[in-house]
Amino acid sequence: MRSGDVIGGALRALTAHGARSWLTLLAVAFGSAAVVLLSSLGEGARRYVLEEFTQLGTHLLIVLPGRNETAGGAPPLLGETPRDLTLQDALAMLRSVHVQQVAPIAVGQAPVSAEGREREVTILGTTADFLDVRHLSVASGRFLPSGDPERAMPYAVVGQTLAEALFGNASPVGRRVRIGDRRFRIIGVLSSSGVSMGDNLADLAIVPVASAQALFDNPGLFRVLVQARGRQGLDRAAEDLRRIVRERHEGEDDVTVITQDAILGTFDRILGALTLAVAGIAAISLVVAGILIMNVMLVSVSQRTAEVGLLKALGARQRDVMALFLTEAFLLAGAGTVAGVVLAYLGVWLVNMHLQAFHLSIPLWAPLAATLVALAAGLVFGLLPARRASRLDPVTALTGR
Fold first, then answer.
1. Per mean pLDDT, which of 7-11, 55-59, 259-263 is the most reliable?
2. For 22-76, what is each residue's pLDDT tens digit?
3. How far apart are CA 173 and CA 152, in angstroms?
4. Is the pLDDT of residue 284 over 70?
5. Where does the chain cross the membrane (predicted)?
6. Cβ neighbour number for residue 109 with a 10 Å cutoff
7. CB contact at 8 A, 39 and 278
8. Nearest alpha-carbon partner for 385 in 5, 2, 8, 13
9. Same domain, yes or no: 91 and 216
10. What are the residues whose beta carbons fall under 8 Å from the beta carbon of 167, sequence distance 6 or more?
11. Is residue 69 one of the residues assigned to a domain?
């Protein structure tokens, strides 16, 4: 039999039982769409997390108090800390030639009140370099002034949510607020883009690090953000930071230095593996669809016994009959896969139209993987019915038995 005759015969057989063919095609389509959609969800989550970490800054190192060898928890819960990470430690880190900027951070919770209104928010103590290290911008006014970081100046920069809660639509710049038991003057308001990694920078107040330490009566720092001079200098900067702190802490290696690349690489591997796992689970539906194709083809063989007998009586070989039924299975799987991929792209487009911060993203391998799995399932599960049809005795088959 010629290839055109095989394909034509398969198409006529499929259209002769339209309802059955459509239901089988839908099963394959939904399975393929599930693989692509779930893969796009995992890929979208991966890209979202990586973009959020990138917004923290570039060439970034995070210095946390405590040794990561002490306990198995995530920083900063790293076990006992022999010595606090102090502001003087942070300033000493600037001695490294591989370090460009250092932003020490002290954090606490305190009520912020003004004009009879009060709001409990996070108070973040830092220096002027924090603006550049974290790639933030100021909507009005200015950020913390540069100067002696050990001087407790009564200045504050607030987020827009906090500003609106305290002053409504009026400009807060130049107004005075009470934070805890101390008074501060607002000198700037952060831009609304200052939200990343769960820290709502729109609903906090930023004060000089020495002021925060005095406010919370805590000389220790929460962490230190260090910006290296380039990606190539990250490892050398990390070594310098450990050495500098070790020298200041009487030989104790009691800090953890995490590079931004290490964090990004860890999340990339975890979310990449999660995406593959989710896609693998979805691919099970394609195996189920392949079993459905097998059942449909077995029914087709039983209904077309006389037709197969006639073909063999006219000289069709076993491989010709096998090719005919395998082509039917291949066409069902192929058409279903194409429909499923199109459906998945349409679904991703519709979802992304209604999502602002988080977007689904279809990885390049997902449609290819869905197609290969669907076609393989169709051919593998179509093999048994095809072999059964090819082995029918022509005389017996012509009688319809």
1. 259-263
2. 877 888 888 888 888 888 888 888 787 777 666 666 688 889 887 654 444 444 4
3. 19
4. yes
5. 21-41, 270-301, 322-350, 362-384
6. 11
7. yes
8. 13
9. yes
10. 114, 115, 175
11. no
Q: Measuring CA to CA, which residue among 1, 78, 10 is closest to residue 329? A: 10
The rounded distance, in Å, linking the Cα atoms of 307 and 278 is: 43
* Co-location of 44 and 97 in the same domain: no
Q: Verify that 12 and 158 share a domain, yes or no.
A: no
Same domain (yes/no): 272, 246: no
Q: How far apart are CA 126 and CA 373, in angstroms?
A: 54
Is the domain of 206 the same as that of 117?
yes
Give the whole-angstrom CA distance, residue 264 versus residue 268.
Answer: 6
Residue with structure tokens 């607020």?
Answer: 177
- Domain span at 357: 3-52+265-398
230 and 334 co-located in one domain: no
- Torsion angle in degrees (nearest 10) through CA of 381, 384, 385, 388: 180
Please check whether residues 122 and 21 belong to one and the same domain: no
Q: Tokens at residue 389, please?
A: 């049809």
How confident is residue 376, by pLDDT bands cut at 50, 70 and 90?
confident
Q: What is the number of structural domains in the chain?
A: 2
Sign of the CA dihedral running 191, 193, 199, 203: positive
Tens-place pLDDT, residues 27-40: 888 888 888 888 88
**Tokens 């973009």 appear where?**
51
Q: What pTM did the predictor assign?
A: 0.60
